[in-house]
Design a protein that fits this description.
- The protein is an alpha/beta fold and 360 residues long.
- It has a six-stranded mixed β-sheet with strand order 1-2-3-4-6-9, sandwiched between helices. Strands 5-7-8 form a three-stranded mixed β-sheet.
- Helix 1 runs parallel beside helix 3 and helix 11 packs antiparallel against helix 12.
Length: 360
């Protein structure tokens, strides 16, 4: 096992606590593999009634190290691998996506406390949970268009199933939303003050069979949702699956909010935005989550070999100049042929598959 996770069973509640505070609990391949092994073991253990997923507090109480649930995956490793043979990156995606799928089909209830930053990989391990608890500290985003990747970890499934065009807006702009928005959209099933969480977890551990009723009873009324207030604009202006149509709608609208969206989109990878819009259209049609993850793995294997990923990570993560030079540089230069190539099937021996224990 790994010290990057704290794993225990407490009165029938299997607990998995992410424990990389200096990296905002970003997932490594080792963490994903250990979570899979643990969840598979608990799947066969009748003494485990439910699974609780959260992050460990900072050991020294430093608030800078207590910012949240999970900031994503190990981007630095992925970028380093992408500069070479991509083998480590492919292994990470393959393992992470198997974890996402395992959580999605898991028979026992999973409770994810998304208290703090929830991005990328953090979305992938919490969205499939049966119960998802947001707080006033929750910040949720799929920011992949800013680093030339794509909204993966199940984004192709979950984003198009959000109300209206919320998913298209989140996927293209990388917008950061709060806990109240998560509840309004349906990303969270419950909302409560963060200072209640310890008491809620203690009550669930004392009575795991009553966890649904406990969460309902302990929930709070959230503040107004900014997404809800803006929903009509989002649904109207992000209605199209074609990027140029979205840009034209925003330009024609001309409001201050529309201009802000245009300014944000101008900083994002045009390739990634077109990938995300097609990915969502295809994901909306899937009836099996495994088909979506196979599709995303294909995209991942192709995208990490394109220049935008390494350049996006350079600009945002390493050099932090926030001035990526995208290639292709404009939406018009991102051809349908290029996008087709990023969705192309892999050789049969390289295709993603669910865990052997979940097949059949």
């Amino acid at each position: 096992m790994t010290d990057q996770l704290l794993i225990s069973i407490d009165n029938g509640v299997g607990r998995i606590r992410l424990n990389r505070p200096k990296a905002i609990h970003a997932l490594t391949t080792e963490m994903c593999a250990a979570m899979i092994d643990t969840l598979l073991a608990w799947r066969q253990d009748d003494s485990v009634v439910a699974v609780m997923l959260d992050h460990a507090p900072s050991p020294d109480g430093d608030p800078k190290l207590s910012r949240g649930f999970c900031a994503g995956g190990d981007i630095a490793m992925l970028a380093g691998s992408a500069k070479g043979d991509c083998a480590q990156a492919e292994q990470f995606f393959h393992t992470e996506y198997r974890l996402n799928h395992l959580l999605f089909v898991y028979e026992k209830p999973v409770i994810a406390f998304i208290d703090g930053i929830v991005m990328g990989g953090g979305v992938g391990i919490s969205d499939p949970a049966r119960f998802r608890i947001a707080t006033e500290r929750t910040t949720y985003a799929m920011p992949e268009t800013g680093i030339g990747l794509f909204p993966d970890v199940g984004g192709g499934w979950f984003l198009p199933r959000m109300p209206g065009r919320a998913g298209a807006w989140l996927a293209t702009t990388g917008a950061r939303i709060k806990g109240a928005d998560c509840l309004a959209i349906g990303i969270a099933t419950h909302y409560m003050a963060s200072d209640k969480l310890d008491a809620v977890k203690a009550r669930i551990i004392a009575d795991p069979d009553g966890l649904g009723e406990i969460l309902d009873e302990m929930s709070d009324t959230p503040p107004p949702s900014e997404w809800e207030a803006r929903r009509e604009d989002i649904d109207r202006l992000f209605a199209s699956d074609r990027y140029q149509d979205i840009l034209a709608a925003l330009q024609a609208d001309g409001s201050e909010w529309a201009r802000a969206q245009l300014a944000t989109l101008a900083t994002k990878s045009p390739q990634t935005i077109k990938v995300a819009l097609r990915q969502m259209a295809e994901g909306a049609a899937f009836t099996d989550f495994a088909d979506n993850m196979r599709n995303e793995y294909r995209i991942g294997c192709h995208v990490i070999r394109r220049p935008d990923f390494i350049e996006g990570v350079r600009a945002v993560i390493f050099d932090k100049d926030n001035a990526p030079r995208w290639n292709p540089a404009t939406p018009e230069e991102v051809t349908d042929e290029l996008i087709d190539s990023l969705f192309a099937p892999l050789p049969p021996e390289k295709e993603w598959t669910p865990l052997p224990q979940l097949r059949g």
